[in-house]
Amino acid sequence: MRTLLHLWLSAPCRIVRVALAEKALEASLKVEKVWERRPEFLKLSPAGEVPVLIEPDGTTLTDAWVINEYLDEVYPEPSLLGDDPVARAETRRLLVWFDRRFAHEVTENLAGEKIMKRFLGLGEPDSDAIRAGRANIHYHLDYIAYLAEQRNWLAGERFGLADIAAGAHLSVVDYIGDVPWDEHPAAKDWYARIKSRPSFRPLLADQIPGVPPPRHYADLDF
């Protein structure tokens, strides 16, 4: 059995979880409290970060990007990167957009400040960062709406890693109730399709002790 070391509200971990489910690859999920800096964990991930995927043969991979490239190469059906070089390039472009730009401008400013600082013992949330995250998310939701209106899915006609990455980051921010869905109906409609996928539903069942999500979080119809 493969094992995935993860954290509940880590968007990179959620991306890998959905990718595994889309490829029908079973994995045992193990929460890794990275702030504890376990020596055994640091041997697997010298950077001290999750996700970490341990394959049944002992192969160990770190970093969501590396893991997803590996999964699509070793388990190619269904392809989540795309069927041709142009499609794969567009998927990778959007992966950079969501897993770097969205993460930096939105996820870290909202979930990072409100949730992760608490677990990492890094002090009180930065109100300026939270305000920036709440302002920045509108631009990203507009971009998601634009892509979803031009294409069937964000990177093209097929569901893939671009949708998974965007959905994972939004699910983290939505857990703390900071996604203004009613102001962005096209993005909301796209996300409703993401929420309804069987691969995504386990994410919506996650519960952080003492920090419950809003009532709409796991509602497939909002």
Account of the 3D structure:
The protein has helices at 11-22, 39-44, 64-74, 85-120, 127-150, 161-175, 185-195, 201-204, and strands at residues 2-6, 27-31, 52-54, 60-62. The chain contains 8 helices and 4 strands. It has 2 domains: 2-74, Glutaredoxin; 85-197, Glutathione S-transferase Yfyf (Class Pi), Chain A, domain 2. It is an alpha+beta fold. The mean pLDDT is 95. It has a 4-stranded mixed β-sheet with strand order 2-1-3-4, with helices on one face. A hairpin with a 5-residue loop joins strand 3 (52-54) and strand 4.
Give a brief rundown of this model:
This protein is of the alpha+beta class. The protein is built from eight helices and four strands. It has two domains: 2-74, Glutaredoxin (3-Layer(aba) Sandwich); 85-197, Glutathione S-transferase Yfyf (Class Pi), Chain A, domain 2 (Up-down Bundle).
Give the topology, please.
Blueprint lengths: L1 E5 L4 H12 L4 E5 L7 H6 L7 E3 L5 E3 L1 H11 L10 H36 L6 H24 L10 H15 L9 H11 L5 H4 L18
Parallel strand pairs: 1-2
Antiparallel strand pairs: 1-3, 3-4
Helix pairs in contact: 1-3, 1-6, 4-5, 4-6, 5-7
Order of adjacent strands in the largest pleated sheet: 2-1-3-4
Strand segment count = 4
Integer tally of domains:
2
Low-pLDDT parts are none
Mean pLDDT: 95
Strand content: 5-15%
Just give the CATH class of the largest domain: Mainly Alpha
* Helix count from the secondary structure assignment: 8
Distance between the termini: 35 Å
Helix content: 40-55%
Keywords:
222 residues, alpha+beta, Glutaredoxin, Glutathione S-transferase Yfyf (Class Pi), Chain A, domain 2, 2 domains, 4-stranded mixed sheet, 8 helices, 7% strand
